[in-house]
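Dear colleagues,

For the upcoming journal club I promised to circulate an example of a predicted protein-ligand complex. I picked one with flavin-adenine dinucleotide because it came up in last month's discussion. The inputs are reproduced below in full, followed by the predicted structure.
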Amino acid sequence: MPDSNPSQNAVSPVTSGFLDRLAGILNPGQILSSKAQREAYAWDNTGIRAIPDCVVLAQSSTEVAKVLRLCNEMAVPVIPRGAGTGNVGGALAAYGGVVLSTQRMNKIVEIANNDRLAVVEPGVINGDLQTALSGYGLFWPPDPSSSRSCTIGGNIAMCAAGPGAVRFGVTRDWVLGLQAVLADGTVINTGGRTSKGVVGYDLTRLLIGSEGTLAVVTQATLKLAPKPQARRLSRAVFSSVQDATKAVAKLMTVGSPPSAIEFLDGASLNLLRNESDLLIHEDGCAMLLLEVAGTAADVESQAQEVNSCIATFSPLEQTPPVGIEEAQEVWAARYELSPILKKLAPKRVNEDVVVPVSKLNLLIEGVEEIATEIDIPIINFGHAGNGNIHVNLLVDPDDPVIMAKVKPALGRIFKLVLQLGGSLSGEHGVGTQKRDYIEWEVGDDSLKLQRNIKGVFDPKGIMNPGKIFPNV
Ligand SMILES: Cc1cc2nc3c(=O)[nH]c(=O)nc-3n(C[C@H](O)[C@H](O)[C@H](O)COP(=O)(O)OP(=O)(O)OC[C@H]3O[C@@H](n4cnc5c(N)ncnc54)[C@H](O)[C@@H]3O)c2cc1C
């Protein structure tokens, strides 16, 4: 981890005086201060470890407000934390301070069927909400692959999404309003309970994706959608990446685009041939998984339209659409790819770049060229319907020759993405991992404005220091 504090203002360590005052606000069981307890909150999905000085298990927005007021007064960093599944170090105490866990704020406060909304606390697990909603024939569309463990607060802070984003959009499209606590303990409410509403700045969307650097989200009013009654999945295997990626762009022009379009490159297919029961044409160099969703009657015609479009690209193999149960086997194989990569190399550098769908072919070609030049295996798969590809560099962290090539290679990949009109992150966010590159994408003036906005919300710089903004 970097050793200097890149926030705009100095932050102070947790002292015994601070802990005494914290004990006056919370019950003893809500403050974790032993090393073993703190270590349990020192990780996320980056593999980096950073032990906080103290962990607080808040139970209400009133408690969050009291804790923030104290931290602000004593300039102690606050790191909001959901389930710790983030990929960019966002929930880690990079510079010490208090990890504020929302795990006990896990109530579904209300499901208002007629208004198609739910009000939830931030620690509700995404998958638990979906289970509760299915009884009403509804769902909340953001579908990160981590949905069985990640929280709604984490989804909001990272603007999470998954394969369904091509049809249903991302978290920012499905939040009506928020309750949030600012650094000085002020509780604000943004948005409301209606999908229309144009009064004032859109603070809801400013907080979505702010990675815990502006405020702690303590309640969310979520927009819901009718749960599709049926889904159909088909697979198409192509002899070239070009054909597969061009087919994706063409699919964007059909009447009802698929609810998910996943791309897997040739290296991914080799892994699936070895590690799964899927039969994949031996000459296949790329595969698309194509899912449609809707009413039972609609899905048949949608699947037909999608498959006719795909057929014009002469795939080597095209399976007929199958229902949810058979599709699960295919999705399981797709989701096994990440764990399989961990077996192939001691370390995987997983980037989640995104380009306009019409430029996917240029992205994959460019990345493949870089992989060949630097002689590091790079495996590409992801949510092609949004142009969002996981670019996985397989490396050995103990090999200095290999590791010396990684940063320059990432720089080249990021420059390519930006040249193609894309973004450096479609899902994972910035955290500590991409903060050195944010200026490449947003530019100097926008970055200054963003720092100024941060300063208005959090003048002392206590909210999640070290995240999003590059070192200054
Ligand atoms: C196996 C796996 C698959 C994944 N797949 C996807 C995917 O498909 N799509 C995707 O988008 N992401 C994916 N992720 C990343 C991650 O799951 C998401 O970013 C998720 O939204 C993080 O939720 P969390 O509760 O774990 O948040 P945490 O990791 O605890 O925190 C993430 C960030 O949110 C902030 N935060 C958390 N709660 C609050 C709050 N209440 N108020 C303010 N800030 C808060 C934290 O400070 C931190 O910056 C995946 C991760 C894993 C491990």
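Two points we might discuss: The radius of gyration is 23 Å. The chain has 15 helices and 18 strands.

See you all on Thursday,
B. R.
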